[in-house]
């Protein structure tokens, strides 16, 4: 079962992803758009068919995501508090080292998106990798970032991805692969992604985990998030 938890589009784009072989996706809106348009989340939620979220093993899972673009760690905390209950998947717009660190330290966050954005390093070091592992914050390998980078700069992106994979192996921080597609042309067949992943230094098992196991763990964790009092303690109703 394959999942793509970073799409910017509507219900039609989600269905195109289903045709390519995905079992679920997350339609993501930017937090800044939600601020300007109070009905954005409500309108997007209406496009999610109830049957599409039934976890019966056969249905297509359609999740609602919010990508937080924070000015600083304090702003990040405020936005996480604001959007956590309204979003199925919570992503953070990474790149700034302080934001990257704050995101990996917050267990309410699901995905740290492109922590290497506008950087020469991966945006993740051993300290952040340990925090991401402890708080189960998935570090994103963003295919759009790689494919849209100028050919003479792609070696830099490959190196960033390889650094993340090395940290994943050493510290067990979760890694997730997404397309960040905003149209059908940005979608990638799961088999194509599997074939591309060795360029990032990932083996078959690691790729399957990033595209299948980690997304499913995020969904399962968020189903019981309201019941968790503190980490490791769950309220049984």
Summarize the structure.
The protein has 237 residues and is α/β, with parallel strands linked by helices.
Explain how this protein is built:
The structure is a single chain. The chain is α/β, with parallel strands linked by helices and 237 residues long. The protein is 43% helix and 19% strand. The protein has ten helices and nine strands. A hairpin with a 2-residue loop joins strand 8 (228-230) and strand 9. Helix 5 runs parallel beside helix 6. It is globular.
Produce the secondary structure layout:
Blueprint: E1 2-7, H1 11-20, E2 22-30, H2 31-36, H3 40-46, E3 61-68, H4 73-83, E4 89-93, H5 97-104, E5 111-113, H6 126-135, E6 138-142, H7 143-147, H8 154-171, E7 175-178, H9 190-196, H10 204-223, E8 228-230, E9 233-234
Helix pairs in contact: 5-6
Helix/strand class:
alpha/beta
Helix content: 40-55%
Helical element count?
10
User: Average pLDDT, to the nearest integer?
Assistant: 88
Tally of distinct domains: 1
What is the CATH superfamily? Metal-dependent hydrolases
What is the count of β-strands? 9
Shape: globular
Under CATH, the topology can be stated as TIM Barrel
Assign the CATH class. Answer: Alpha Beta
Q: Calculate Rg over CA atoms.
A: 17 Å
Sheet of most strands: 7 strands, parallel
Terminal Cα separation, in Å? 30 Å
Share of residues in strands: 15-25%
Q: What spatial order of strands do you see in the largest sheet?
A: 1-2-3-4-5-6-7
The SSE order reads: EHEHHEHEHEHEHHEHHEE
Name the poorly predicted regions: 49-57
CATH architecture: Alpha-Beta Barrel
